[in-house]
């Protein structure tokens, strides 16, 4: 029995030693494979740890973005709130910050924020006259003008007298490329952004997409808080110079001091109506430049130290500017 036990112990010892050797070899193999997978040491690591700078190339924005152009100046708004006329102001979900007693520069868009010398309105009118004559046999350009004076809007004219649905009218007018007549106006943009303590909005007889496209093309879309425009499919055809349109603007913008509103428009009828409700109206003619008129008016308001709320511009300045 003693011999058997000795033999068993010897065999067990050999078995245990064999397992230990296998484990040691396996450990070496695992360690070796881990080393092979380790990333190579960065030769600059010690320099960074020691506080030395490592030279690297930093690309500027021009290199990162081909065609990059630095912004002219900081944008005050992401974009204006668009509000269509012809609806109940109380039902509007998006409520702009009310004007209250603040100074408001309120701009028409067509032939006001861009100069009529670009012929956009003239060419558009020519396009529409030709369409009108083709739709109504025996019609004349004089009939077009007479009926437009009653309808006020081109869309209303074709709807009421041209037997077109509003959908058909907007599809037809889309054939006219009005944006080709416009170009960026960085001087106007910089001026609008430079005016402090003055609220800026638009009041146009164009639809939202037209207003947005024109303001974008000129480069001044983000200069305005609110754009009040017509509703494309509004069959009440609420627009300037109807009293309802001015009442609508007053309500949705929350205007509390009409004397603090300075309205710029190329239509004499629109200006007359604005003055009737207490706004300061400025007629923009072909002899005017909206930048010159606005900047001179703004300077006059700033110089009127007698009125902290700038209720009105001195009469002598108003009369001079109206003729400029």
Automatic annotation (TrEMBL):
Record Pfam families: Hydrolase (PF00702)
Residue intervals passing through the bilayer: none
InterPro entries (alphabetical): HAD-like_sf, HAD-SF_hydro_IA, HAD_sf
Molecular-function annotations in GO: phosphatase activity
Source organism, top-level taxon: Eukaryota
Name of this protein: Pyrimidine 5-nucleotidase
Organism of origin: Encephalitozoon cuniculi
């Amino acid at each position: 029995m003693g011999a058997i036990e000795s033999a068993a112990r010897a065999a067990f010892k050999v078995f245990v030693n064999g397992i230990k050797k296998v484990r040691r070899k396996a450990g070496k193999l695992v360690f070796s494979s881990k080393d092979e997978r380790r990333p190579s040491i960065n030769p600059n690591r010690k320099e960074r740890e020691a506080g030395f700078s490592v030279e690297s190339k930093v690309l500027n924005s021009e290199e990162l973005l081909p065609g990059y152009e630095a912004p002219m100046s900081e944008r005050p708004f992401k974009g204006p709130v668009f509000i269509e006329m012809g609806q109940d102001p109380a039902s509007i979900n998006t409520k702009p910050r009310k004007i209250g007693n603040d100074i408001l520069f309120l701009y028409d868009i067509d032939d006001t924020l861009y100069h009529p010398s670009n012929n956009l309105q003239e060419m558009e009118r020519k396009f529409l006259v030709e369409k009108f004559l083709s739709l109504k046999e025996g019609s004349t350009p004089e009939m077009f003008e007479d009926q437009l004076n009653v309808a006020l809007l081109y869309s209303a004219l074709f709807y009421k007298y041209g037997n077109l649905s509003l959908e058909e009218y907007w599809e037809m007018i889309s054939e006219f490329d009005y944006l080709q007549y416009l170009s960026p106006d960085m001087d106007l943009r910089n001026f609008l952004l430079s005016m402090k303590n003055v609220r800026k909005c638009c009041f146009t007889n164009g639809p939202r997409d037209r207003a947005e496209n024109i303001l974008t093309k000129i480069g001044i879309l983000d200069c305005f808080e609110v754009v009040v425009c017509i509703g494309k499919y509004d069959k009440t055809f609420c627009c300037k110079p109807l009293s309802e349109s001015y009442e609508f603007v007053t309500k949705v913008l929350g205007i509390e001091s009409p004397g603090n509103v300075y309205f710029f428009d190329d239509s004499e009828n629109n200006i007359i109506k604005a003055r009737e409700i207490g706004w300061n109206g400025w007629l923009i003619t072909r002899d005017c430049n909206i930048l010159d008129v606005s900047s001179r008016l703004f300077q006059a308001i700033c110089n009127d130290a007698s009125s902290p709320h700038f209720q009105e511009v001195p009469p002598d300045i108003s009369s001079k500017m109206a003729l400029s």
